[in-house]
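Record 1 of the preview.
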Amino acid sequence: MTSTAPPAPPDTLDIRDLTVVYGRSVRALHEVSLQVPAGGIVALLGANGAGKSTLLRAISGTLSLHAGAIESGSVAFGSLDLTGLPPADIVAAGVVQVPEGRRVFSGLSVEDNLAAGRLGIRGWGRRSEARETAGQVYDLFPVLAERRRQAAGLLSGGEQQMLAMGRALMARPRLLLLDEPSLGLAPQITERIAGIIRQIHDQGTGVLVVEQNAALALELADHACVLDLGRVLLTGPSSELSESDRVRQLYLGDHSGEASDQAPRSEPRALARWAG
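->
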């Protein structure tokens, strides 16, 4: 049943009772509810196939590109209902996704990749605004400034991840969706990416991050949500989840408390939820 609670505050992502299907019979999300407070960082954890990428697609409006659809529930950003909106309208509303695998335009220069991040944005063609935004991106990613005329396909994996994030920031998002930002990167580069995410957050941008490195995700985020087979298994402050035996066993490789944790996987552990 859809929630009748009042609208969330401005710039809060509010997902209520979201059910998503692929084709006619594959239900990928089951009545998922989640909030990302304005300017907060929330980590989304779960095994492969848990529904993490599906949730990001539902938020960004790209489900139809993968033969998926929202069956019930809603996705809102502040007072704006995002449910069913085209991806371009969702980007214009301030919600921008950095996809898994970077997906930069390898044949285009770094500059042109960044310019592509403003396509479809009102006023994107104003040179002064575009230069100002690009300058902010270059300040955040100095290596991109050094390689601005280099083809994106010649960048390292870490540099391509920075470019993908920089391209998203060209749209001046108020909420950034990050899908596996550390995937395939060396530990040293992963730490650099994590530092940049903290800087983006410090500038007031909210972040919802799907991250395979659970320890890093819990360190970055204020709150976290664990999905299991399309359902919310655990949710609460990151500090609390990082101390949960279930999370430590499933995602942090710690089995020291396994004998004492007898709760079946299908029953969520009771954890304090945060206020919207």
